[in-house]
Structures are given as C-alpha cells and as structure tokens.
Design goal:
Its EC number is 1.11.1.7. About 40% of the residues lie in helices and about 0% in strands. It is mainly α. The chain has a two-stranded antiparallel ribbon. The radius of gyration is 23 Å and the shape is globular.
C-alpha cells in the first residue's frame, strides 16, 4: 500500500474577472481547482496541535496520564524507558503512526516481531489506556497519540510536571512490516556516518541525533547488544580484548557482568544499565559518562568521533540545558511521517487494523 506524505497547506486563489471571463465563471473555476487539489491529497491533511481532543474527547489526555502514572508508580525503574523506547521505535519506521503496535497476521510479520523490537515493552499500558478511551470516546483518539502521550507522561512522572507538550492529531497506520523495522531502525552497532544517514532520512539533523541519544540515560540493555565492544580493538584495552574507546574499568565491569566476549554475544538474558550511576533518573548524566568513555553502545561512542556532535556534548552535561533541548528534539521526532486529516484510521484496537 502506497503511503502519501501529509502536509498542511493553505491555498489562496485570486483571479481577476475580465470581459471574456465573468467573475462567476472564475469563481467556479477556482472552486473546481480546489476540489481537484483536495482529491490529490494536498489539502485534506491537518496539522498536529496541542489539546487536539479538547472538544471531541476532553478527558483524553487525563485518561492516559492517570493510567500511565499509576503504572509507573508500580514500576518506576523500568516503565518510563520502555514507553519512551516504544515511541522512538514507532516514529522511526513509517513515522509516528502506531504501526509498531500491530500484531503479525497470517502472511505478514509485523514490526514488533522484528529482531530490533524483540525487547520492546509497554504494550499493555497502551492497550489499557486505549480500552478506557474507547469506552469514553469511541473511535476518536488514535493509538499513535496514546503512544506519544504515554512516553511523555512516563518520563515526566519523576518531575511532577510535563517535560514537553505533546501535539496531537495523529492517525493510525494500517501497514506494519518487520522488514521495514530491520531496515529503518538505527542499530547500537552503527558508526556516526550510518547514524547521521538514518536520522537524516527522517528529517532529523545531527543536533537531534545527539540530543535524542540522551534518552539512553534511562533503561537497560542486554549483553548481546554491545558484546562486540568487549572483544574488539587494538588500543590500550587490547590485552583485555575491549574496544579501545571504552573506558578500561568500565569494560572490566561489563565483562564481569556479561561474561567473556564469546559468551556475552549470546547473552540476551543479562541486562545492564545504559547510564551507570543514574539509570533510573532522566538526566544529563548520560553525557557525563560519554565523556568518560562509559557510553555503552558503539553508537554512543560514535558521537565523539564527529566534531559537530562532540562539540555539543559538554554543554549537554548541564541538566537544564539538556531538558530544554530534549523537549525540542522529541517534539520534532513526534512529527516524523505523521498521518493526519483523512489518511490512516482511528483503530478501535491498537493491535489490529479496523475491518
């Protein structure tokens, strides 16, 4: 199924009447042209905006917030990272359209069953929020907007205030392919060139890349996702077999936790904090660790290999600045490839398209 890009545009058509073209004729021509453009998908999209459901479902944002905060209270260390990662992985494949929530069907493996998404979580929170919304406002609130709100509310819980505002009005996609997830998601093994290309394909720049990488300040990763860093390199850590860009003491800690490199590569059960020393707190500590060679992934360390990216790191160690810049970057990411207007649908069940 082809996917059309949806942009909001305003078209003003002014034609001057002449003796050979009376005003009424020109008016009819202008109206016909507008209808033609609308039929082509030019004017049937609407922009995202704050409080999109103010009139159609006034309780929407409160419903999601209440459910998410209750669930975060029961799992404050893990759930915020899960819901934020779910939002990221949704937006990076086909745009922020909740395609990551769709279950596989006969003959089609969906995004959630692709290897990079195997460790995603938080689906049950989205399902619960959507079920309540369908009871309150049937067919109004999209799953894509629930994902965006849930990520914001979960991360904001520890602060007692919203860290960013969520613009709403997304609609849900009807296509989900595992192959697209495998091709479209950035890898923890990516170098800077690959990361920049991946983000650039979504309309995100180097600054967005550096700031959104700061989301690694919360959550955990399994040993197999970074095991290659424990068995590569020819620099100072060569005797220990570690990537020379990895802090030697940190590499030893990881090896003690995950096992020697051959075993670590197959260890998808043991998890370690992505931001040691501040794993449950959404803060700027990720960048402090990065400067010390304690970035967990190859993709983290890669930020120091590009002068543009590396030049941003020091300032981002300041908490206030990081939160301000993250707010801007995550809002920008939340607009990637969105479906609005008459595109897509409002799913009744986030795991399946409507029939």
């Amino acid at each position: 199924m082809a996917r059309r890009s949806c942009c909001c545009c305003c078209i003003s058509i002014k034609l001057r009447p002449t003796p050979s073209a009376p005003a009424v004729v020109l008016a009819m021509a202008a109206a016909a042209l507008l209808l033609l453009l609308a039929g082509a998908g030019v004017c049937d999209a609407a922009p995202l905006k704050a409080h999109f459901y103010r009139h159609s479902c006034p309780a929407a944002e409160a419903v999601v917030r209440d459910i998410v905060l209750a669930r975060v209270a029961a799992d404050p260390a893990k759930l915020p990272a899960k819901l934020l990662r779910l939002f990221f992985h949704d937006c990076f494949v086909r745009g922020c359209d909740a395609s990551v929530l769709l279950d596989s069907t006969e003959g089609n493996a969906a995004e959630k069953d692709a290897a990079p998404n195997a460790s995603l979580g938080g689906y049950d929170v989205i399902d619960t929020a959507k079920a309540v919304l369908e009871a309150v406002c049937p067919g109004v609130v999209s799953c894509a907007d629930v994902v965006a709100l849930a990520a914001r509310d979960a991360v904001s819980a520890q602060f007692g205030r919203d860290l960013w505002d969520v613009q709403l009005g997304r609609r849900d996609g009807v296509v989900s392919r595992a192959a697209e997830a495998r091709a479209g998601l950035p890898s923890p093994a990516n170098n800077f060139t690959a990361l920049e290309a991946n983000f650039g394909a979504k309309g995100l720049d180097v600054k967005d890349l550096v700031i959104l990488s700061g989301a690694h300040t919360i959550g955990v990763a399994h040993c197999n996702t970074f095991a290659a860093r424990l068995s590569s390199g020819t620099g100072p850590n060569a005797a220990a077999g570690a990537d020379p860009t990895l802090n030697a003491a940190y590499a030893a800690q990881l090896r003690a936790r995950c096992g020697p490199a051959p075993a670590a590569a197959n260890n998808n059960a043991t998890a370690v904090a992505m931001d040691p020393g501040s794993a449950a707190r959404f803060d700027a500590h990720y960048y402090v660790n990065l400067k010390l060679g304690r970035g967990l992934f190859t993709s983290d360390a890669a930020l120091l290999t590009d002068p543009r990216a590396a030049g941003m790191i020091h300032r981002l160690t300041k908490q206030g600045y990081f939160l301000e810049e993250f707010r801007n970057a995550v809002r920008k990411m939340g607009r990637v490839g969105v479906l609005t207007g008459h595109h897509g649908e409002i799913r009744r069940n986030c795991r399946a398209v409507n029939y």
